[in-house]
Queue: 2 jobs
Job 1
Amino acid sequence: MPCENEWRIFGPPGTGKTTWLARQIRHAAARYSPDNVLAASFTKVAALELRGRDLPIPSDRVGTLHSICYHALGGHLPIAETKPWIESWNEAQPGFALSGATSESDVDEPFGDERVGEREGDRLLRLANVYRARLLPEEHWPMMAVRAFWRRWCDWKTEHGLIDFTDMIERALQEIPVAPGDPRVGCFDEVQDFTALELSVCRQWAGHMEYVLLVGDDDQSIFSFKGCDARAFLEPPIPDERKIPLKQSYRVPAVIHRLASRWISGVSRRERKIYQPRDADGEVTRMPDDVAWGNAEAVVDRLLVDYDRYDDTASAHKFFLLTSCAYMLRDLQDALRQAGVPFHNPFRRKRRDWNPLWSGGRDRLSILDRLMAYLRPLSTIWGRDARMWTVEDVQAWLPLLRSEGVLQRGAKMAVARMDKETRERTVTLDELEQWFDPPALAASMQGSVTWLLGHALSDAAQKLRYPAQILKRFGGRVLREPPKVVIGTIHSTKGAECDEAWLFPDLSPSGAEEWEQSVEGRDAIIRQFYVGMTRARERLVLCAPNTRNCVEL
C-alpha cells in the first residue's frame, strides 16, 4: 500500500549507508526524544554495527527486525529451529527430519546443486518459508510435498506452543499494528534484503509514525533464493522528492566502478541513480585461462605474487577469493593449505572449513591456540610477549602428545586436574621433570615444531600440519595476525570490503539454468556478481572460467 511518509535512501557500494543512517537517528532522537526512534536491520552484524555507533537511543530500540518482533510478541515463546526442538521434531517426524543446520548454509549456496548436510525436511521447510516470505497463500504453493510438510509442521508447533523464525514476522503483522513503544520515527537498514512479508510489517508500523526511512540498494539485493525481492523495496511508487541517493562511493575506484556500472545495467528492473567512484583509478586484471578455481595451484601461485608484495602484515592488505557457490572453494582451500597461506572467513565463523585457524577462546581451544601456547617461550614468535609456560599453556598443548616415549605415567591426568586458580602460575622445572621424559622435555623447551609433529597424536598431527606450514613459510608473527586472505562465497562477504577481490565467474549447473531461462534468476546472478566486483577498493582480479557454466564479466 502507498506510504505517504516513506523515504527511500539508495546507497550503492561504499557510500556510507550506516554512517548516514546513524546521523539521521541522532537527528531524530534530538528532535523527538530517544524513546521515539526505532532502528531495525536485516542482519545481526548490521544491528551490532549500528549499536557500535554510540547512538543516543535505548539499546532495545536497535536490533534485527526479527528480534524486535519476537520481543514485541512477549519474548518468551520457544523457537522451533533450536537444537532441542529439532531433535523432538525428528523423533516425531523421521520422514521429514531436519539437520539443524543454521540458515548460513542457505546463504552460502544460493544456486548450488548440493547443500551440505541438507535433508529432505530442510528443503521443504526452506521452500515453505520462501512462499511465506513472498506472501503467497498456501493454496497457491506449487508443491504438494511442501504443503504436506507444512501442515505437519504447523500441527507440531501448535501442540508444543512453538513459533518458528518466519512466525515472528507473520504474527507481528497480524498482532502488532503499532511498532513497540509507539515510536514517531522508524529507520530500517539493509531493506533491499527484506522480504515482502518483512516490508509489510515495516509499512504497517510506518502508518503510525511521523516518517520512516528505508535504507538499502536494490542493486545489492542478492537473497532472492530466500524469498527476498528487490521489487518489494521499489514498490509502490513514491515521488522522486522522497528518494535520496547517496552518490559518492568511498570504496570503489574509477576503473572498477565503470565495469560494475556497465554490468549492473543488465538488470531488468532497478532504480537508476547517480553513483560516483572514489578519486582513484584502481585496476581490473584479467587472468589467463589456467587461473581458474579448478586449477587451484595456479590461482595460489598468482596470488602469492601479490601477497609477497605486502609481506609486512602491518600493511593489512586484504584479499578476497570469491565464488558463486561454496563447493568451488574446496580446491582453493586445499591449495592454500599446501602453500602455507593463512586464510579465514570472519563473516562465517561457523564454517570451520573456511576458518581452519579459528581461535575458540578460553573454553574452546583451536589447534592454533594450542600450538601458540606450546611456542609461548619463543621470542622469535611472541616478541616481547614471550614468557615461560603457565599451567594454562601446558594444559592447552600437552593433550596433543602421545604419552609413550614422551610423558611420565599419569602426567596428562595430573596436569588436567590442576586447579583453575593456578592456571596463570608459571610452571616450575620440577613440575616439568615430573611430567616429561628427559629427552622430550629438552626438545619441547626448544620449541621444536618438528618434534611436536613427530610426537603428536595422529589426529592432532594432521591438524598441526597447516599452521606448521605457515610457520615455515612466513614465520611465527603471521600466526598472531588475522589472515590477509578471506575465502568465501560472494554472499558471505556482502557488506565487507577488501583491497583486492579475486572473482571467479563460474555458476553451478542449476545457476546456469537460471541464467539462461529465467529473467528473475538472471537478475539475481547479475546482482550477485555486482556485489562481488564492488568489494574491491584497489584491484579487481577476474579469474578464468572453469567450465562453460559461467558469466562473461
Job 2
Amino acid sequence: MMLRHLFRYVRPYWAMGFVLLAGLLVESGYGTFVKVSSKELIDEAIVPRRYDHLVLILVVLAVGGVLSSVIAVGCDYLWAKFGGRVMNTVRLELFEHLQRLSMDFHSRSRVGDLMTRFTSDIGAIEMGLVSALPSGIVAVMGILFSTALLFRLEWRLAILTVICLPACVLGPKLLSPKAVAADYRYKQQEAGLASIVQENLSAQAVVKAFGLQRRAAEEFREQLGVFFKAEVRASFLTYLLQRTPNVAALLASLIVIGVGAVLSFHGLLSVGSLVAFQVLLMGMSAAIGSLTSAGPYLVSAAGGMQRLREVLDEAPRVDNAARATTLPRLEHAIRFENVSFRYTPQERGLRHVDLELKAGTRVALVGSSGSGKSTLMSLIMRFYDPVEGRVCFDGTDLRTVTQESLRAQLAVVFQDDFLFNISVRDNLRLGNPEATDAELETAAKLAEIHTFLVAQPNGYDELAGERGSRFSGGQRQRLALARALVRNPAVLLLDEATSALDAGTELAINQTLARISEGRTVISVTHRLASVVDADLIVVCDEGRIVELGTHESLCRARGTYAQLWQKQHGVSVSAAHNRADVDSAWLRSLPFLQAANEDVLADIRRMFITERYAADRVILQQGDLDDKFFIIARGRVAVEGVATPGESVFLADGDYFGEIAPIKSVPRTATVRTVTMCTVLTLSGDQLRTVLPRIPGFEETLGRRYGTATA
C-alpha cells in the first residue's frame, strides 16, 4: 500500500531511480560474488597449490571491491538526492493541498495534529525511503543471487534451503497488518499529544488566569497513559516483526549446515563447496536480518503514509467549478438570494436570507453573538457555499467563478490580523505581490502608518516579529489596513476590526476608515453600534435571519431590535482621551432594581462607579467566589461559563452587565467570567450600593420579586 502511494512521487524521477537500482544490483552482486569465491579459493587455488590462480582471484576481488565501493558511494549521494527530491514533492503536495482545503476542514482540524503530519509522519516516510528501502532492496537482491548460486553449488541443499525460507516470511506476513495498524494508532496518539502541548502553550494566559496548571498536568498525564499503551503495542509488534524472520533463518541455517556436513563427510560435497555454501547461507541470514531491520522503518513509513493520505484524500468543499469563469469587478450589488447555511446539521445557521448590498456603500452587519453576521461575511468571501440559495456579484453566482478572481477584488481586516515575521514591506506586499514601493507607501499613508514606519530604524524593512509582536494593537491594525488597501479592493471587509482596541485607538482608526471608504463598498461586522451610525445600510441579524434593515435614524425610530441594542450601548461610554468609562442615568434606570430611583440617587450611584481595564484572556470572576461587585461592560467582550450553561459559553459585550445580585445578596458566584478581548468595565461594590438602596421606594418588594433566588 505504501509503496503504491510512494510510486506516484517516485515516477517523475524514474531515470535517477533506474541508475540507483543498477548501482544496488552491482553492490549486491559483488557481495554475493565475494561469498561464493571461497569455493574457488579452496578447491581451485589453495588445495591444489596453484599460486597464479590464487593471485588472479585476489586481484579480481580487489578490483571489484574498489569499483563496488566507488559505485556504492556514488549511489549513497544519488540516493540522498533522490530521497530529498521525492520527499520535497510530498511536502509540497501536502502544503499546497492544505491551501486548497476549505475553511470547514481547518476549523475542525487541530494545528498540532497537522504539524505532526509534516514532521513525524513525513519524517517516518523519509526514513523508510532513504534508509530502509535501499537496504531492503539490497537484501532482496542478495537473497535472490545467493539462492541461484546455492543451486549451482549443491542442488539438494538448495532445495532444502528453499523449503525452509517461507518460514522466514510467514511471521512478517501475519504480523505486518497488525504492526501497521498499531503504528497508525501510535501516530494518532502522538498527534493528539502534540495538539495538547500546542494548545496549552498557546493558552498559557488562560491556564494561569484560571489556575489550571494542575488540571492541565493531570489531563496530560492521562493522555500520556493512553499514548504509553499505544507506544508499547506498536513497539512490541515491530520488534516481533523483526525477530521472527531471524529466528526462522537461524533454525533453517542449522538444519541446512547439518545436512551439508553429513554430505561432505561421505564425500558427496567438496570442502570448498561446503564452506561456500555455509558463507552464502550466512549471507542470506544477514540479508534476512537487514530486511527485518528495515521492517520497522517501513511499518512506520506505512503508518505515516496512511495519515498523509487522510489529508490528501480530503476533498475541498469549496472548489472552482469545472468551467469557472473570471468574475468582473463589482459594479452594482452583492445579493443573497434565499440563502440558508449551517456549519453543522445541529446548528441553526442562516435561514432563507434575502439581502442586497449596493456597490459603493458602507454596510454594517450587527447583532448579538451567533446571530449570523460573520457567516454572511464568510459567504461573501466564499469560505463556505450556501446549503440553499446563492450569493451573487452583479447577478453572477459565486460558485460559477474562480475563487482567485473573486478574492482579487476583496480585502479583509480581521479582529486579530496576522502579521508574518518578515519585514513590514513584505507584509504589505502580501496584499498585492506586484505593488511597487510607491504604491505600498501610498497605502500606508491612507492607513496613517507611513510616518511611524519611516521613523523606525529600518523603515519599511523593520521586522514585524512573530504575529506582529513588534507593534502595538493599533499599529498592527493599521498595517493590516494598509495591506488591504494596497489591493485596491472593490469590496473592503472589516470583521470586528477595532473591537480589541482601546477607545482612543479605535476612534482614530474609525476616522481613518471613514476617510478611505469614499467610493468603496465597505462591509463591516461589529457589535459596537457607535461606529456604524454613519453607515448607508445597517443589517440587523438575529438567530440566522435578517430582522431589520435601514439607517441608524430609521432603525432607532422603528423601536425594534436595533433600537434596543442602541439603547443598551448608548448609555455606556468610554472617553477616547482618558479611556475612562461612564454610564448615564437613563441607562441605570433600565436596571430592574433602580427603576424607581430618583435623579439624585442615580447621580450618586454614577459617581460611585470605578473604571477597570482587563487584558484579553483574563478571569474577572471565578465561580464560587464571594466577590460583591456589580459589573457593566463599557467596551469589550466576555465569556460567561457556569452552572446555567454547562459546557457552553454565553458572550456579553458593550452595554451588558453581570453580577447584579452580588452587591444586594451575599451568595457565591454561579459563573466564571473571562475576557475574550481587552475590556473596559465599570464596577460598583456592594458596600457602596447598599448605602443608597434604602433611598429607593419599594426596593424591598422589587428585590423579592426579581431576586428571590440567586442568579449568576
